[in-house]
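User: I'm new to structure prediction. If I give you an amino acid sequence, what do you actually give back? Let's try with this one:
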Amino acid sequence: MDLVRFALVGNYKRFYQDLKKIGKEKKKSPLLMFIDTALCVIFIGGGLQDYLNYRFYEKSWKERRKYVTIGYQAKMYKKMANIKYAPFFSNKPNFLRNFRKYTKRDWYDSEMEYEKLEEFLSIHDTFILKPIIGLGGTNVQKIETKTIVDRKKFYEDLKNKKMFIEEFIVQDPRWGEICPNSVNTLRVMTSVVNGKPKLFFAAARIGSGKYVVDNFHVGGMAALIDLETGKLIGNGFTKKLDEYERHPVTNIKIDGYEIPYWNEVKEMVLEAALVNENVNVVGWDVAITKDGPVIIEGNRGPGWDLVQVLLNKGTKYMLEDIKKEMKQHGLW
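Assistant: Good question. You get back a string of structure tokens that encode the predicted 3D arrangement of the chain. For your 332 residues, that looks like this:
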């Protein structure tokens, strides 16, 4: 039932409309592709978005079986990212407490005294409003303090809507140049087994110029990062698979663009991976300030669409390697 629940998440009507567009472009039957999607659910744990994101309609079964699908991911994360540790990461104020050494910013939630809110607003002219628990960069807003007319009401809204606020991150001008309208972040993925952390994937998530967030799922684009040099590799891609050699707003070439403080980024996430070794796979969202990198959040059991879309291949082998290592140490 878990597999079915995960695989069937989505809007069928919208999904079928997407298949019709693909069918027109690729000269394929939407109905046959829909049946093919159902077979992916049954045999490889694929979901609706897996079928679209990874273009399964163009791939053989041999290729499809190499992908981390949503069902396969859920199965692996039962061991690698046990749900009992979810509050440690997913509750954002908890995360800020647990990783304060690496987050390096001020924040406030309604569990604190009201006077702390007054103190926060007196210090910060601008801040970010976020849901306490949320995914994909949704409902994130940049707020100017001067627009908060009734602070008592704002306090009650935070409490009732389960929101919190945090200091606005000012990014390093060298990194912000590529898209100054958003805080452009890095997704850096680590594993940790038996006290040994490893960095196995990294990508830059760059804003489109339309939103304050850069998120791949909210109109942003992404590009691979060379793990040794910290330079971007190749073109940028959106979740809809639009490809850009240059940023559409700033016209800056993506390939070869260098990320400041890359060595410090690597050192920071490898150290942070050891804070809770019970979670073996974490996707860290990292911002670059003029003083160095800071962690925005850590995602327990991160998604794989960003990884596999950018690499244009299945990366099941990455999770299998971690599983093998866990088995060697009696953790599987």
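You can read the tokens as a compact description of the fold. Here is one thing that stands out. Residues 82-91+172-328 form a domain with the D-amino Acid Aminotransferase; Chain A, domain 1 fold (CATH 3.30.470.20).
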